[in-house]
Every structure is written in C-alpha cells, then in structure tokens.
UniProtKB/TrEMBL annotation:
Homodimer. This is FMN dependent NADH:quinone oxidoreductase. FMN binds at S10, S17, I18, S19, M97, Y98, N99, F100, S142, R143, G144, G145. Its EC number is 1.6.5.-, 1.7.1.17. InterPro entries: Flavodoxin_fold (IPR003680), Flavoprotein-like_sf (IPR029039), FMN-dep_NADH:Q_OxRdtase_AzoR1 (IPR050104), NADH:quinone_OxRdtase_FMN_depd (IPR023048). The gene is azoR. Residues 3-202 form the Flavodoxin-like fold domain. Coiled coil: none annotated. It comes from Sphingomonas palmae. The keyword Glycosyltransferase does not apply. Belongs to the azoreductase type 1 family.
C-alpha cells in the first residue's frame, strides 16, 4: 500500500487556490495508479506548526526525563511531524510562491522536521547525511509570472529552498509542478494551469 503525505501551505481556500487544486489533482492521479493508497492531509495554513524556539532546540538535546514541560511539548510536536514523514512513501507539497519564496508555514514545518540525529546527521568531517531516504517528493506551486529557473537571476528561491531542505533529510527524488502566469490575464492563467496539469499527467500517467 502506497502512503502519501500531503502538505498544503496556501492561505487561500481550496476553491480558489491553484496550488491546492493541482495538489489534489496530483494526489487523485497517484491514488488511481496505486489503488488502496493511504493519504494523510496536513493543512499547514489552517493549523500552523509552532515556530522552532529555544524549547525544541534544547529539548532534542536532552534525555526525555530531563526535559521541562515546555521542552517535552515542543519535542512531541516535532516528533509527530517526523513520524508522518517517516510513514510516507510519497510527499506532496502544495507551495505557492509569495515574494520569491514559499509561505512561512512550510518553512516552519521544515524547521520542525530537520532535527540532527533524527532526520539527518553530520559525519566527523562535517558532511550532512540524510536519514529519511527512499521517498519521492512533488512540489506543486503557483506563481504570478514566469519563473522557469531557480536562484537570484530568476527571483525563484522557493524551488531551490525546498530541494536543498529535503535533500538534507535524504529526499532527493523531487519533481516540481508549476503553474506560472497566475497574476496575468485569464488566458495566461489558463495556459499556466494547463501546463501544470499536463506535467502531472507526465509524472503520473493515468
């Protein structure tokens, strides 16, 4: 049985959010290709995870019995998110681009699951090794203009951020589905959506 973890980070409701609509389309397509697939849906915008603070940073470095109540609570929240990530075979991330990056709630989720010694480790030379391996990830994004490449020249820091953050954890099989031109005229918006929809069909044939 294939297990899918879907993370939604758009603050817009499902009926108007392009990233949510396309993420759902992708999940349906994957489920059709894998009958009986199980899905966990996590709406980061509706139930935002807490920002990483001193309690989590201290708590993960202490034995369980030495943690304060605040530290124990922070570690438990982080552990729940990591357990969902461990459970999943496939990760679907809905992440619209805002101001050249993705929504802050997704960054907060990344911070909560990026725990040294749990989801990645450093060797003696300081090289990082991911401990969450063997998974495939899809990033489904909507963007106002045309951001076909990543980095400073394109103004697209979202794709590269997710790619590097997941690679730290050991998730390197990553595919981006992008609906560009969503801030332009209706015809351009439709064209951008159609391009993304075709990309889904290419990645997960019906």
């Amino acid at each position: 049985m294939l297990r899918i973890l879907a993370l939604h980070s758009s603050p817009r409701p499902a009926e108007v959010s392009i990233s949510r609509r396309l993420s759902t389309e992708l999940i349906v397509q994957i489920a059709r290709a894998h009958p009986g697939a199980a899905v966990i849906q996590r709406d980061l915008a509706a139930e935002a995870p807490p920002h990483v603070g001193a309690a989590l940073l201290a708590g993960v470095r202490k034995p369980e019995l030495d943690r304060s109540a605040e530290e124990a609570a922070a570690v438990a929240i982080s552990a729940e998110m990591i357990e969902q990530l461990d459970w999943a075979d496939v990760l679907v991330i809905g992440a619209p681009m805002y101001n050249f990056g993705f929504p802050s709630v997704l960054k907060t989720w990344i911070d909560n699951v990026s725990i040294p010694g749990r989801t990645f480790r450093y060797d003696r030379d300081g090289n990082a090794h991911g401990l969450v391996t063997g998974k495939r990830a899809y990033v489904v994004t909507s963007r106002g203009g045309d951001y076909g490449t990543t980095g400073a020249e394109a103004g697209n820091f979202a794709d590269s951020h997710v790619r590097v953050a997941l690679a730290l954890l050991g998730i390197v099989d990553l595919h981006v589905v992008a609906a560009d031109w969503q801030a332009l005229h209706p015809e351009a918006r439709r064209d951008g959506y159609d391009v993304a929809s075709r990309r889904i069909s290419e990645l997960v044939p019906a």
